[in-house]
């Protein structure tokens, strides 16, 4: 590092005893980059550029966004553009934070941390700018190349691996629950909430047992809501193994007006080498000389996409989301006045017919498990992991007498369904002398053991 002229300052101190704080503040001023290194040049017309790193909900001030101001300044009633979705957001008030106190100010300039109120959709991880869409993408790309520490807009939350239903004791409390979950989702992008189309139940999708328990605790502590969670389920996926094409004809009579729609859709599996999943985005139009789709309106195409998305949300095996497939629209014949709802219903029926003949298979989430335990319990832990159908990747057996040398490290790839309640089991097997971490490691077809 000395040859590369790169140095890592190391400082020691204690915030509890107020030791080393002044040295830390001096190091920040002397060593960290200044906010002025991203100037608002006339070439790109930077203007104001801020990054929202945290969103909270205050009962008096409503949603509050903590933001680092990289360029320009923020003022009351200022309008900014969200780089993630190109939507405009207006700042109502500007606060300067001092620990848990906030001072209401008129303006805060670059280099400072500001707390902003009034945003409708902006959430953690968003970048907001004052310039327009015409040069927004190019400008952000230029800044990322020049200043690598500038984060990308939006937070890529991992795919949820668990889900459960959540209910309240009354219909009036359900409305408060919907509002509370919307607020928590803005603070925590890894939480997903959806409504079951068939039962109308609210479903929470999270990263683990602890994650969902924390959400329930926050609902009680911050919003005073008593909720009931259903059993925890693994978030399986389904995927087709064969291509299939179907044609569905729908007849409808409304107010003595007859309408007929004939739709032809095909599905094709996407074969991936990586351990990734590809959710459905939109229908591909297969244009031919006979069918050009020149009269297909955008709202009707949106209705078809909605119907396809609805059908793929509940597969034919376990009712799980169907992934890793392409959906193509080959033909569309109309007779009479067709409403968007009829387009959507016909597309859903056609997709379900395709799935029934596509030899679908169930996919389960696989987890990379890194486990550290005392050396004399290594064999016991390995035997338990084998019963859970784990793929043992690596075992580093502890042989020494020191604390670190007496610990074994085990790395496996294990189906998530086998790991429900595993922390309690591991604590019993090792008398509390073990710890493990989990990370999603793709999806694999469910095996019949």
Quick take:
Helices cover 23% and strands 35% of the residues.
Q: If you had to describe this structure to a student in words, what would you say it looks like?
A:
There is one protein chain. Helix 5 runs parallel beside helix 6. A hairpin with a 5-residue loop joins strand 4 (79-82) and strand 5 (88-90). This protein has 449 residues and is α+β, with helices and mostly antiparallel strands. An 8-stranded antiparallel sheet has the order 5-4-10-1-2-9-6-7. Strands 16, 20, 22, 23, 24 and 25 form a 6-stranded mixed sheet that branches. The longest helix has 17 residues, at 171-187. It has 8 helices and 25 strands. It is globular.
Structural descriptors:
35% strand; alpha+beta; 449 residues; 8 helices; six-stranded mixed β-sheet; eight-stranded antiparallel β-sheet
Q: Into which percentage range does the β-strand content fall?
A: 35-45%
Number of DSSP-assigned strands: 25
Helicity, as a percent range:
10-25%
| Biggest sheet record | 8 strands, antiparallel
Q: Average the pLDDT over all residues and give the rounded result.
A: 84
Structural class category: alpha+beta
Rg (CA only): 27 Å
Tally the helices: what do you get? 8
**What is the distance, rounded to the nearest whole angstrom, between the alpha carbons of the first and last residues?**
52 Å
Major β-sheet strand ordering? 5-4-10-1-2-9-6-7
């Amino acid at each position: 590092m000395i040859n590369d002229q790169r140095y890592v300052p190391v400082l020691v101190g204690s915030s509890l005893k107020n030791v080393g704080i002044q040295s830390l503040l001096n190091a920040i001023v002397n060593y960290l980059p200044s906010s002025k290194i991203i100037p608002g040049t006339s070439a790109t017309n930077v203007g104001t550029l801020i990054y929202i790193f945290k969103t909270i909900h205050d009962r008096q001030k409503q949603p509050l966004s903590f933001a680092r101001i990289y360029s320009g300044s923020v003022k009351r009633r200022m309008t900014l553009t969200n780089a993630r979705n190109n939507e405009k957001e207006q700042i109502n008030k500007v606060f300067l934070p001092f620990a848990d106190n906030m001072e209401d100010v008129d303006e805060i300039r670059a280099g400072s941390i500001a707390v902003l109120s009034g945003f409708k959709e902006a959430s953690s991880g968003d970048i907001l700018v004052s310039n327009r869409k015409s040069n927004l993408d190019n400008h952000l790309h230029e800044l990322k190349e020049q200043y690598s520490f500038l984060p990308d807009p939006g937070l890529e939350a991992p795919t949820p691996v668990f889900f459960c239903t959540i209910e309240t004791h009354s219909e009036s409390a359900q409305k408060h629950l919907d509002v509370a979950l919307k607020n928590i989702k803005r603070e925590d992008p890894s939480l997903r909430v959806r409504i079951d189309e068939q039962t109308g139940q609210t479903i929470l999708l999270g990263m683990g047992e602890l994650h969902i328990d924390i959400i329930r605790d926050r609902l009680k502590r911050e919003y005073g809501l008593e909720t009931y969670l259903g059993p925890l389920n693994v978030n399986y996926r389904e995927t087709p193994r064969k291509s299939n094409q179907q044609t569905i004809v729908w007849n409808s009579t409304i107010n003595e007006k007859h309408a007929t729609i004939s739709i032809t859709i095909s599905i094709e599996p996407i074969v991936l080498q990586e351990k990734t999943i590809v959710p459905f985005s939109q229908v591909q139009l297969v244009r031919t000389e006979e069918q050009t789709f020149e009269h297909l309106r955008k709202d009707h195409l949106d209705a078809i996409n909605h119907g396809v998305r609805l059908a793929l949300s509940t597969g034919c095996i376990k009712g799980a989301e169907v992934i890793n497939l392409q959906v193509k629209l080959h033909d569309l014949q109309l007779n009479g006045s067709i409403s968007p709802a009829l387009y959507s219903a016909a597309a859903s029926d056609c997709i379900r017919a395709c799935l029934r003949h596509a030899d679908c298979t169930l996919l389960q989430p696989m987890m990379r498990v890194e486990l550290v335990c005392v050396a004399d319990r290594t064999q016991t832990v390995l035997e338990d992991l084998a019963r859970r159908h784990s793929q043992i990747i690596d075992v580093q057996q502890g042989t020494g007498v020191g604390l670190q040398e007496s610990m074994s490290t085990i790395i496996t790839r294990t189906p998530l369904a086998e790991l429900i309640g595993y922390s309690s089991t591991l604590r019993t097997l090792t008398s509390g002398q073990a710890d493990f971490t989990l990370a999603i490691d793709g999806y694999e077809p469910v095996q019949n053991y």
